[in-house]
Amino acid sequence: MTIPAAAEVGMPLSQVDTPCLMLELDAFERNLRRLPDSLKGRDVRLRPHAKSHKSADIALRQIALGAAGVCVQKVSEAAALIEAGVKDILIANEVVGAPKLELLAGLNRRAHVAVCADDAGNVSALDAAARAAGLSLDVLVEVDVGANRCGVQPGGPAVALAAQISRASNLRFAGLQAYQGSAQHIRSVHARQEAITRAVDYVRMTTRMLTEAGMKCEYVTGAGTGSYMFEAASNVYHEIQAGSYIFMDADYAKNDWTESGIPQFEHSLFVWTTVMSTPRPARAVVDAGLKASSIDSGMPRVAQHTDVEYVKASDEHGVLNLTGTTRFKVGDKLLLIPGHCDPTVNLYDRYVCVRNGRVEALWPVTARGALL
Amino acid sequence: MTIPAAAEVGMPLSQVDTPCLMLELDAFERNLRRLPDSLKGRDVRLRPHAKSHKSADIALRQIALGAAGVCVQKVSEAAALIEAGVKDILIANEVVGAPKLELLAGLNRRAHVAVCADDAGNVSALDAAARAAGLSLDVLVEVDVGANRCGVQPGGPAVALAAQISRASNLRFAGLQAYQGSAQHIRSVHARQEAITRAVDYVRMTTRMLTEAGMKCEYVTGAGTGSYMFEAASNVYHEIQAGSYIFMDADYAKNDWTESGIPQFEHSLFVWTTVMSTPRPARAVVDAGLKASSIDSGMPRVAQHTDVEYVKASDEHGVLNLTGTTRFKVGDKLLLIPGHCDPTVNLYDRYVCVRNGRVEALWPVTARGALL
């Protein structure tokens, strides 16, 4: 006895069981084109972050529309996507430990897989793994351009690590990873742009010092959905790593986008859920809780009902306050807009892809649970 | 190419790759016995909630130690556990919609699966599904005893629903589901006990009214790890649904347990993680973020290091503040105590079970992702 599938191809959405991850294909496809279209005439490539979708189907569509490849955060995500046909991947993150480095090196026999580093010991380990595999690895220096997470400091420390990579027998210094992650959800456009201006200054200083040290830096990569047009206009970044633009979650929707140059992306990813209890007139409970929609960046929003608020999540329940005239009965089905798409997608094994109210396809979440 | 496993049986923990879900078997087995031992001499049975662990291996161990069966929240969780040999399940929740009701009825051919209801229309649908399957279903009335989530109001509304169930041709009124979920994490023992005293009063009033209406209520079930000794001492509850006691997460550990009668459970479930970056002297970054440890009930705690605080999680990163003398280097491995075990377990495909620093077993998370 296997757990039944929520949906089958051809089924009307109304019959699809809940909770499930619903991708509205028309909105998704508009988002999919809207970002590369917005970069036309700019000298930057798109390399979307696949940590948002973990899907080979989506990665291959992004590449078909001109993306250089995709980013991932984990070497096991790279493995899953390469297995499904993706040929060019940047692990926009550090990879640590012998088993993972061996896997990383091995993957380079089947695809181009670059990786980031911010530590001298890790660079030595990368070199040893590449040597053991008899090949050369592309390594980027991750620079902390204000995100306060990983990365060496801009300028001297970045140049020193780049020099170590350049000297290593089986590594190639491939460029700079310069992602200002903490800028992406700053609500004000102006403050977001200021954070990117500082990041750009750090990158410019670092590339100048690299040139002075005789190391040409031909590849600077970074940016997210919240800020990418600023990086694209900087003449410093060569590649844009936006990922969330295809789905547009409730948290990103709270940003101000006025005069950012970033087009309006639509919500295309939803959690399809059923009202399982209506215990009081102004309260309803749905069957999608913490295990169906990640609440790390806030509660999901209820689509199509401005007078209904999702106020509380427990493992398998979501409590709705009905603040206006909307009322539900047990069995009604609703769409939730996840607070944060990336960890929500990771809860599911498949996307239920819907067009005109009917299931058109089921796409696996190829790298679901790929934590290594 | 499949995603490599983090661990193999026999491997020392130090070699196990990260992030993974690590179960410390000695502490787990002590917890496993400690709760049923604490109920000895009381006229209550244990029916642990399997939503915490989603594991057939653990459910069968709980039953071997005397548990009457287990609870689940979802009919698909029941299906997965029945497939693995569990014979007695209470879905401590409402089940809504024709596909799920059909599955529920079908499962009753292979095991005893009771379910809760709080809605007249749902009771009719349960009856129709049972009739279509040619069998009888046990249905409990869920009563809202203060949790403010699902459930009918105590007293008259509960009696009316019980009467409807009793009249239905293919249903049996099996008792009351009376779980005071919002009491479980009240920090003060006294306030927690007061909340349960109110719940017990609601149950007592309802069972008295049921008796007056000619419906004997022989089965009242509820309680969680935070409060169960109060329900057990009430002479009103017949069954205890505690689940988290086997793992003990960081959130539950913040409760005061003084004079609660509840034994001290140990942390037995951890996320094993690697330091992937040490960008500044007082900061380290680990490879376990939002997708490795759910933060809905707070950040994970760092085990064994009181001067290290996990302060920020992004998808695949956890930022540690090193407030004392502890320092890490890239590649060091640490244990995190999840903020909330239930949604954390649901992120993984297997438990890496460790005893004396060595992997003894790998247990599947049998019902991982079972949302239907």
Oligomer: homodimer
Proportion of strand residues of chain A: 15-25%
**Element-by-element helix/strand order of chain A:** EHEHEHEHEHEHEHEHEEEEEEEHEE
Largest interface: A-B, 73 and 73 residues
CATH architecture label of the largest domain in chain A: Alpha-Beta Barrel
* Residue runs with pLDDT of under 50 for 5 or more positions of chain A: none
Major sheet details of chain A: 9 strands, mixed
Rounded to the nearest angstrom, the radius of gyration of chain A is: 22 Å
Query: Class by helix and strand content of chain A?
Result: alpha/beta
Cα distance spanning the termini of chain A: 30 Å
Mean pLDDT rating of chain A? 96
Helix content, binned percent of chain A:
25-40%
Shape of chain A: globular
CATH superfamily of the largest domain in chain A: Alanine racemase
Give an overview in words:
2 copies of one chain form a homodimer. The first copy, chain A, is of the alpha/beta class. In chain A, 27% of the residues lie in helices and 24% in strands. Chain A has helices at 25-38, 56-64, 75-83, 98-107, 120-133, 156-167, 189-212, 228-232, 341-345, and strands spanning 20-24, 45-46, 70-72, 88-94, 112-117, 137-142, 171-177, 220-222, 239-240, 269-280, 283-286, 301-302, 308-314, 317-322, 333-337, 350-355, 358-364. In chain A, strands 1, 10, 11, 12, 13, 14, 15, 16 and 17 form a 9-stranded mixed sheet that branches. An 8-stranded parallel sheet of chain A has the order 2-9-8-7-6-5-4-3. In chain A, helix 3 links the parallel strand 3 and strand 4 (88-94). Chain A is globular, with a radius of gyration of 22 Å. Chain A starts with 19 loop residues before the first strand and ends in an 8-residue tail after the last strand. Chains A and B meet through helix 3, helix 4 and strand 10 of A and helix 3, helix 4 and strand 10 of B.
